[in-house]
Amino acid sequence: MNGRYAVALGLVLFASAARIPAQMLAPQTAMPDPLTTPTLTPGQQTLYKLEADFAADVARSGGSAFARWFAEDGVILPNAKAAIMGLHAVSGYAQWDPKQYQLSWTPDGAQMDPGGDSGFTWGHYAGKTHDQQGSPVTVEGRYITVWKKTAGAWKVALDASAEDAPATDCCSLPKP
């Protein structure tokens, strides 16, 4: 990954930690269509397709599918937890059944390296499960995924996330 993408990655991670109100982060309902969005580059189309395939695989098969998409040296930077480094550690971490936990995401944007062998996507995710009383629990946030081409196959090099801040009333002032 060249310096330009490392800087972009830093900016996206900084922005995701800035606690943008959840109502401003509504996920897209579908991937951009190159027929209706002619400004998409071939590289962006590739990254959006990778994200769609990755998300569909995880929706079907859960954590085992999530891990399958990672490179041998892939890294997860989960929200408020230590880094998970390497495919073996990622596989041990991603042990959820899609019947108990559903992870979904939609990219808001994508950038491909000029060389065409790495790029990144960013967007909004939602994780849904139930608490011990059976009540639904949803955690939402922002993510960034860095992709790299290894031996002709696209793999996740890095996946990072940050939970959205709780929604607040932006215009109310505290009473003295």
Describe the 3D structure.
There is one protein chain. The chain has helices at 3-16, 42-61, 63-68, 87-93, and strands spanning 70-77, 84-85, 102-112, 118-130, 136-150, 153-163. It has a single domain, classed as Nuclear Transport Factor 2, Chain: A (Roll). A 6-stranded mixed beta sheet has the order 2-1-6-5-4-3, with helices on both faces. A hairpin with a 5-residue loop joins strand 4 and strand 5. It is built from 4 helices and 6 strands. The model is unreliable at 2-29 (pLDDT under 50).
What is the number of independent domains?
Answer: 1
* Distance, first to last CA: 51 Å
Q: Characterize the largest beta sheet: strand count, sense, and whether it forms a barrel.
A: 6 strands, mixed
Rounded mean pLDDT is: 82
Share of helix among residues?
25-40%
CATH topology: the name is Nuclear Transport Factor 2, Chain: A
In the CATH hierarchy, the architecture is Roll
| Shape, per Cα inertia axes | globular
Beta-strand percentage range: 25-35%
Question: Which sequence of SSEs, written as H and E, runs from N to C?
Answer: HHHEEHEEEE
Number of helices: 4
**Widest β-sheet, arrangement of strands:** 2-1-6-5-4-3
Rounded to the nearest angstrom, the radius of gyration is 17 Å
Oligomeric state as shown: single chain
Number of E-type strands: 6
